[in-house]
TrEMBL record:
The active site is at residues 103, 195. The keyword tRNA-binding applies. CDD domains: MnmA_TRMU-like. It comes from Spinactinospora alkalitolerans. Residues 205-266 form the tRNA-specific 2-thiouridylase MnmA-like central domain. The gene is mnmA. GO terms for biological process: tRNA wobble position uridine thiolation. This is tRNA-specific 2-thiouridylase MnmA. GO terms for cellular component: cytoplasm. Residues 274-348 form the tRNA-specific 2-thiouridylase MnmA-like C-terminal domain. It comes from the Bacteria. Its EC number is 2.8.1.13.
Length: 367
């Protein structure tokens, strides 16, 4: 069946090959590049593969080679509101956001998809490394490039209008295919930085937005061990940058309290949590489970997978880990899997440690 497909083309190799595959499959494909900054020079420059000033030209050249129409959509206002401002607000609240996840949720698969459907397109095609089988997201065959974690926020309706042509191949195969197709982006480096922070200095970006306000660094008893210049510069599990001096044993950030601008530190053992509460759960791969069931959970992008039991309770996701995990930060996503199938996700809002919470146990309220 021939579909009208809108191919989101970032200017990188993945989205170019995805668009080419969709066109080769016989679909009626139109390429679109998202202009995400009102002042492109405020974003970093250089051929890095996402949101640089050169990317629109690279995407247009790729569309010309593929032989598809190409347009640029101005999404700067939506991107600033839903991604950049959200990023700053989350740090101000003591949480650690994932801006790529929010961009997928709010921009690429909400604003763009809504506009595409309104214009009569059947699906949006992207170069994400994830498989879509029987209406459910599955991990990419290239584990190192798998992006199912940052797409787990998608609803079933959004997934039904999505196309991911690259989930069945490795990144090396994508580059080789781009070269065979004559796409100039075949050797373009991947981007690993936050696109709207031009110099890669996240702490400096947050200081400019939130200001630099000194505050105490305390241990779990409340004893002041040192000072910081802004609580937003820290995340749970962080060890470097505390500057507590050689007389203090190795400490890790346990929590950030924005109200009183306090950073609490402690031992690595004190980082361990075995229960997690998540807000705004999305269940794309199964029905909301009323009773705890066995699955696995991933707690950060490219992080390890933890065996657990999970359920939905009072509109929240409740996860009890089989073994404690460290460095679990509020604001990140908790993504549930059955083998390689995405079941659902939620934004981590609370963590806790309940010694008795193990397989089959009812989780206590996290703090």
């Amino acid at each position: 069946m021939t579909l009208r497909v809108l191919a989101a083309m970032s200017g990188g190799v993945d989205s170019a090959v995805a668009a080419a595959r969709a066109a080769e499959a016989g679909h009626d494909v139109t390429g679109v590049h998202l202009a995400l900054s009102k002042n492109p020079q405020s974003y970093r420059t250089g051929a890095r593969g996402c949101c640089t000033v050169e990317d629109s030209r690279d995407a247009r050249r790729a569309a010309d080679v593929i032989g598809i129409p190409f347009y640029v959509w101005d999404m700067a206002e939506e991107f600033d509101r839903d991604v950049v401002q959200d990023f700053v607000a989350e740090y101000a609240a003591g949480r650690t956001p994932n801006p790529c996840l929010r961009c997928n949720e709010k921009i690429k698969f909400a604003a763009v998809l809504d506009r595409a459907v309104a214009l009569g397109f059947d699906a949006v095609c992207t170069g994400h490394h994830v498989r879509l089988l029987d209406g459910r997201l599955r991990r990419s065959v290239d584990e190192a490039k798998d992006q199912s974690y940052v797409l787990a926020v998608l609803t079933r309706e959004q997934i039904a209008h999505s196309m991911f042509p690259l989930g069945d191949c490795t990144k090396a195969e994508v580059r080789a295919e781009a070269e065979r197709r004559g796409l100039a982006v075949a050797d373009k480096p991947d981007s690993h930085d936050i696109c709207f922070i031009a110099d890669g200095d996240t702490a400096g970006f947050l200081n400019r937005r939130l200001g630099s306000e000194p505050g105490p660094i305390v241990d779990e008893s409340g004893e002041v061990l040192g000072t910081h210049s802004g609580a937003h510069a820290f995340t749970v599990g962080q060890r470097k940058g505390l500057n507590l001096g050689g007389s203090v044993d190795r400490r890790y950030v346990l929590s950030i309290e924005p109200v009183n601008n306090t950073v609490t530190v402690g031992s690595r053992d004190a980082l361990a949590v075995d229960e997690i509460i998540g807000e705004r759960p999305v269940w794309s791969g199964c029905e909301p489970p009323e009773e705890p069931f066995a699955c696995t959970v991933q707690l950060r992008a490219h992080g390890e997978v933890h065996p657990c039991r999970a359920r939905q309770r009072d509109g929240e996701l409740v996860v009890v880990l089989d073994e404690p995990a460290t460095g679990v930060a509020k604001g990140q996503a908790a993504v549930l899997y059955a083998d390689d199938v995405v079941l659902g996700s939620a934004t981590i809002s609370a963590t806790g440690r309940t010694e008795g919470a193990r397989r089959g146990a009812e989780p206590a309220q996290a703090g």
